[in-house]
Amino acid sequence: MSVFKHFLKWQLGLAQAQTQTTVAERDCLAVHAAGRNVLAEIGVWHGVTTCRLRAVMAATGVLYAVDPYPVGRLGVSFQRRIAASEVGRVQNGRVEWVRKTGAAAARALSAQLAGKLEFIFIDGDHSYNGLREDWEGWAGLVAPAGLVALHDSRSTPTRPIEAAGSVRYTQEVILKDLRFTEIAVVDSLTVLQLPGES
Ligand SMILES: C[S@@+](CC[C@H](N)C(=O)[O-])C[C@H]1O[C@@H](n2cnc3c(N)ncnc32)[C@H](O)[C@@H]1O
User: From the CB of residue 166, how many other CB atoms can be counted at a distance below 10 Å?
Assistant: First the structure.
């Protein structure tokens, strides 16, 4: 179905917002994001995972929702419109929309967020260099005991993606980063934690 057709169906209540995450992955994200005060999501699309994060974060918290949302042929991003509406319906915490790539957002927010980021879900550009840029921009901003969740970080029988850049970068670089410990693996999702007191 074309993006525009899906948007019309979504407006009429005949189609839902879409995600590539599994139910188990979303449940895992919700467990680890619960009660956190400073969160970021890189790659929002229709906002399905953003809604889960917003619902469980601290009521006093802020969630940076980062996505460049390039416009399509009609000059608008229908994905952005769907996300804004879906995420806007969740009444908890505060969401700051950052319409930039993950790398550009990290540069813009690094002074403000350094050492304060309690949870980040990286699900943006899944190429090797795309994840490298996100990892290099965001990993150093994570707070003590903070968490990094990576989607499409491993291949699974139902999602065989061993050749994906995000899988290769995770396995070759991120899992060898001695600052972080792997604390959970669910489907293609990996969750890492920094040591320290939260
Ligand atoms: C797989 S979707 C995210 C899905 C969302 N996390 C969910 O499961 O509901 C990937 C999104 O990343 C965005 N994206 C692509 N390149 C990006 C980049 N360099 N930085 C941040 N987001 C990017 C795309 O516009 C797209 O909306």
Answer: 26
